[in-house]
Design goal:
two-stranded antiparallel ribbon; 13 helices; mainly alpha
Length: 267
């Protein structure tokens, strides 16, 4: 059994909490576009505005729970809830890229759940506090690493795709930053992010991850409205990039150890 670096545990824990606290804040604010997502279930405009603060409060409560008393049950719910809320975007008529661009929302709690272990757990263990001193076998560590690679690939490819589609909000960001030709900027950024996504999926290099981490943390600050809440909600994006950066050395050591063991004769 291998000890998972506490920094990986805390990174994914804080990233998951940020995502749902930021998302919940938009429910409290009653973000207008949420009406489109309620409409998928046949919920009208007036009722949607009444439900937004309720759902937002639940999101914030669960996010705080992860910071104070993290449990497998809370992580599992956040995985499902993150998938559901991300799915509502294409279901309401938005591009499918909007779903995969939010892979960090459910990818961060999913990876942490994988590391904590959830197979053959009784009810008491599902609601017991998850401690940072996680012990993971080689297979679990490899699975968690691959999960992070796929998640980072999806969120980068999704955002790059939205750039190529010239999403209105993204174009507004480039215009507000003073770019004379936002369409050209969107194309360059889109190609850069999609190529980077493919590199992470094929061979994640630490140098590339460091650049992408700085890129995501910086670019997520440029939303034209509610900048702080948008930045917090995107915690799953740069949280998973940082977690992959931290977990790679452990995964590499595990692979090296396994290779050496194959060549060491039994005594």
């Amino acid at each position: 059994m291998l000890a998972v670096d506490n920094k990986v545990y805390y990174t994914l824990r804080v990233a998951s909490a940020m995502c749902f606290i930021g998302h919940g804040a938009f429910g409290i604010i009653t973000k207008q576009i949420w009406c489109n997502y309620f409409a998928v279930f046949g919920i009208g405009h007036d009722l949607a505005y009444q439900l937004m603060p309720v759902l937002g409060s639940v999101d914030i409560l669960l996010g705080i729970t992860l910071l104070v008393y993290p449990t497998r049950a809370a992580l599992l719910w956040l995985v499902f809830w993150g998938i559901i809320t991300a799915s509502l975007r294409p279901l309401s008529g938005e591009p499918f890229a909007e779903f995969i661009e939010r892979a960090g929302n459910f990818g961060a709690p999913l990876t942490l759940l994988l590391l904590c272990g959830f197979g053959k757990k009784n009810i008491k263990e599902w609601f017991a506090r998850v401690n940072p001193d996680i012990k993971a076998d080689e297979k679990t560590l490899a699975t968690a690493t691959m999960c992070l690679r796929v998640v980072v690939f999806l969120l980068l490819a999704g955002h790059g795709w939205l750039n190529l589609l010239e999403k209105k909000g993204i174009m507004g960001q480039y215009t507000s930053l003073g770019f004379a030709n936002p369409a050209k900027v969107a194309f360059v950024v889109g190609v850069f992010e999609i190529v980077s996504a493919c590199l992470i999926l094929i061979k994640p290099l630490r140098s590339i991850l460091i650049v992408l981490l700085i890129w995501k943390v910086g670019t997520e600050l440029f939303y034209p409205h509610w900048e702080v809440f948008e930045w917090i909600e995107r915690g799953g994006s740069y949280g998973t990039i940082l977690a992959l950066l931290l977990i790679l050395p452990q995964s590499s050591r595990t692979t090296s150890d396994l290779s050496l063991n194959k060549h060491v004769p039994a005594v």
